[in-house]
Inverse folding.
């Protein structure tokens, strides 16, 4: 192992996963999160096979398969009053034949499992630790917190998401840009006939879809032009948007009320070409590459980053700088393909294009992802 003590900024999927892997290898791991404590925010998440592969490797699979809902196909429905099923397509098992193609689950449940594994591996999560500055030299990286506390490590990993403070403190000027689309997401009870993700293109909005997240729950989403929205009015707005769809959407809309978990976000994208590290500070996950969820690969790319970084550090070959350069070399083209493809699908929706090969783009990405990171 090239490093003995590592600080990780951000207790999200990338941060906790790399923390688990390094702690299990004997590294002293501290995860610094700006939140006051563990968050229960978030709707659902779609985890494809290559994400499940990493989660199995860190020991999470047996836990999440009991909490989530697995399926191996995707449905396409018509924007008619009955949401007629037009096609059911077998999905690619990108994690290998012994894992499902997709598992849907609630984001807070996944976060809770990862937190348990961090603690079991010997890692530490410190809350209320907002990053305010960084000092890095040839031998150490120091995180300067908003409280003035200075924490020094052999390596500091920035896994603090789309609006990464670490990225900005490193002087990297790449920022997320809007794709022109925004999404409403709700968590509601699962109608009995929803057993996979079904998508509706060509209806009153860009896209409507849902994903089962457990035996008794789904998260449903409607994608529209990005605009200023007040989530306080979310229940009313979502019901109005959903009224344009039939079939299971009638039951989904009827389930939404003022107590429903609802959020609204714009789809953004960014990719840092290089560098991915400066001195002894390394960026991973959404901090370095962020894509719209049109191919459901954002979480998977973050998890793969964590796996590759831990693997290169554990190899112990060469200097730390050489190991971090190898991480980018292994990850860049794969992440770029996912970011470009996900963004392309959104741009086609926003532009109202009908002469496109959505299935071809998705198949190309899935075929690439069958090969482990």
């Amino acid at each position: 192992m090239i490093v003995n003590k590592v600080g990780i900024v951000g207790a999200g999927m990338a941060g906790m996963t790399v923390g688990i892997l390094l702690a299990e290898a004997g590294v002293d791991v501290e995860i610094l999160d700006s939140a006051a404590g563990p968050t229960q925010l978030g709707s659902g998440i779609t985890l494809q096979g290559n994400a499940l592969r990493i989660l199995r490797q860190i020991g999470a699979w047996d836990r999440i398969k009991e909490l989530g809902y697995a399926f191996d196909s995707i449905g396409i429905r018509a924007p008619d009053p009955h949401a007629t099923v037009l096609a059911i397509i077998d999905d690619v098992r990108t994690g290998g034949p012994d894992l499902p193609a997709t598992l849907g689950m609630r984001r807070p449940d996944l976060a809770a499992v990862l937190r348990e594994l961090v603690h079991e591996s010997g890692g530490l999560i410190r809350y209320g630790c907002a990053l305010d500055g960084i000092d890095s030299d040839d031998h150490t990286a120091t995180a300067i917190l908003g409280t003035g506390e200075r924490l020094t490590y052999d390596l500091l990993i920035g896994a603090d998401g789309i609006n990464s403070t670490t990225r900005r403190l490193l002087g990297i000027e790449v920022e997320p840009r809007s794709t022109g689309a925004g999404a409403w997401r709700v968590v509601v009870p699962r109608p009995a006939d929803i057993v996979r993700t079904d998508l509706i293109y060509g209806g009153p909005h860009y896209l409507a879809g849902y994903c089962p997240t457990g035996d008794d729950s789904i998260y449903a989403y409607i994608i529209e032009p990005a605009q200023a929205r007040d989530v306080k009015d979310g229940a009313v707005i979502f019901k109005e948007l959903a009224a344009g769809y039939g079939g299971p959407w009638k039951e989904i809309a009827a389930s939404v009320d003022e107590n429903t978990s609802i959020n609204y976000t714009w789809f953004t994208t960014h990719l840092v070409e290089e560098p991915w590290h400066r001195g002894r500070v390394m960026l991973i996950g959404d901090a370095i590459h962020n894509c719209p969820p049109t191919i459901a690969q954002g979480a998977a790319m973050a998890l793969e980053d964590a796996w590759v970084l831990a693997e290169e550090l554990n190899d112990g070959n060469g200097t730390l700088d050489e190991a971090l350069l190898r991480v980018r070399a292994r990850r860049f083209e794969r992440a770029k393909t996912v970011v470009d493809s996900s963004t392309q699908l959104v741009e086609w929706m926003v532009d109202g294009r009908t002469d496109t090969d959505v299935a071809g783009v998705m198949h190309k990405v899935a075929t690439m992802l069958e090969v482990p990171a």
In short: The domain at 5-176+269-369 is CATH 3.50.50.60 (FAD/NAD(P)-binding domain). The first strand starts at residue 5 and ends at 9.
